[in-house]
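Spend some time on the protein that follows and explain the fold to me:
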Amino acid sequence: MQLYSIVQNREPLGSQCHEVMTADGVRLRAITIAPKDAAKGTIVVLNGRTEFVERYFETFSDLTKRGYVVASFDWRGQGGSQRLLKNPMRGYVNSFADYDKDLSAIMEKLVQQQCPKPYYALAHSMGGQLLLRALRDRNYFSRAVMTGPLLGFHYGRWPRWVVPILTFIVKYCGFGWVYIPGASAKPVIQNQFAGNVLMSDKGRWDRDVAILKAHPQLGLGGPTYSWLRAAMISMTHLHRWPRKKGPTCPTLIVLAGNDRVVDNREARNFAARAPGFSLTVLDGSEHEILNETNAIRERFWAAFDAFMTPENNYQR
């Protein structure tokens, strides 16, 4: 396993690539970056569906400049980690509990073995949902920040009640590997910039297109019925979070005001359920806040830095 650099997207200084094996035998690709003056601990970055660590090189550098060691990885079935189907472009997982095994392996076999405490988390989209799963009962982190967590979908023309029935029938009949209607075999980031639902910064869009053009094996196509059903089951479980039980560490949820990928209403409802969650909205931002314009990213980093101030932190 290795990291992939291009002229427009160099890996941060001090980067190391790692192979981590999960408890059920899946090979994960991971990265650590250790700056010379890392005194604040370690940030574990959890990316979203279809993503890969190369898309976060800029964010990793932003974090190391702030004095953090960075650890990140690709979830099973995507990026440089082991794919789960013969067709590697199909976005597939049997259960989100399988992703839980990925995070456990990274924390126990890499972060806790090689990275300095305290540990913090920064997660995006699907990574945000998976982080919330961990924050129910795992004491991994002292503080957590997430952008656009996947807590609800925009279903478009589909009646909401139809989707769980359809995904159950299709998977029960043995066709969970089939793409959902409208899903493409090619990554979203390879489509035209105009009208995309991810970001409004063309420079960062072009950078990501260039990464996939140089290294197409990192890409992932649309979700399958199995992935969609697993995501819906996981979201339903999270929305039953006990109202009086907070997360295992203080958690900041940052929503993109123009998000057309996840449903912000569901995130607001979730954040209101229990103590320990803070929520803010970045107006004008599309779904991928960390790949947005400089002005939007600066607003995000201001919120991040305020939440992570030393006087507010504590170690576990």
Notes: The longest strand covers residues 15-21. The chain has eight helices and eight strands. The chain has a mean pLDDT of 92. The CA atoms of residues 120 and 290 lie 17 Å apart.
